[in-house]
């Protein structure tokens, strides 16, 4: 995770695992790409 709050996720292994499984989903990847396109 490339945010200033990554240390919080690293402190909680179960939350980190949940987050990693969430962002691995195709729909979340698609959403992230759409959001990135809006910010550029």
Keywords:
single chain; GST C-terminal domain-containing protein; mainly alpha; Glutathione-S-Trfase_C_sf; flat; 40 residues
How would you characterize this protein structure?
It comes from Aegilops tauschii subsp. strangulata (Goatgrass). This is GST C-terminal domain-containing protein. With 40 residues, this protein is mostly helical. It has a domain of 27 residues. Helix content is 78%, strand content 0%. It contains 3 helices and no strands. It is flat.
Rounded to an integer in angstroms, the radius of gyration calculated over CA atoms is: 12 Å
The count of strands amounts to: 0
Tell me, briefly, the overall form: flat
Weakly predicted, low-confidence segments: none
Give helix and strand order, one letter per element, not per position.
Answer: HHH
Average pLDDT score: 88
Number of helical segments?
3
Main sheet record: none
End-to-end separation: 20 Å
Q: State the secondary-structure class.
A: mainly alpha
Strand composition percent: under 5%
Helix content: over 70%
Task: Explain the layout of strands and helices.
Layout: H1 6-11, H2 13-23, H3 26-39
Please summarize what this structure is.
InterPro entries: Glutathione-S-Trfase_C_sf (IPR036282). The protein is mainly α.
């Amino acid at each position: 995770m490339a945010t200033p709050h990554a240390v919080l996720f690293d402190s909680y292994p179960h939350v980190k695992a949940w987050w990693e499984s969430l962002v691995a989903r195709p729909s979340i990847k698609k959403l992230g790409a759409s959001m990135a396109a809006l910010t550029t």
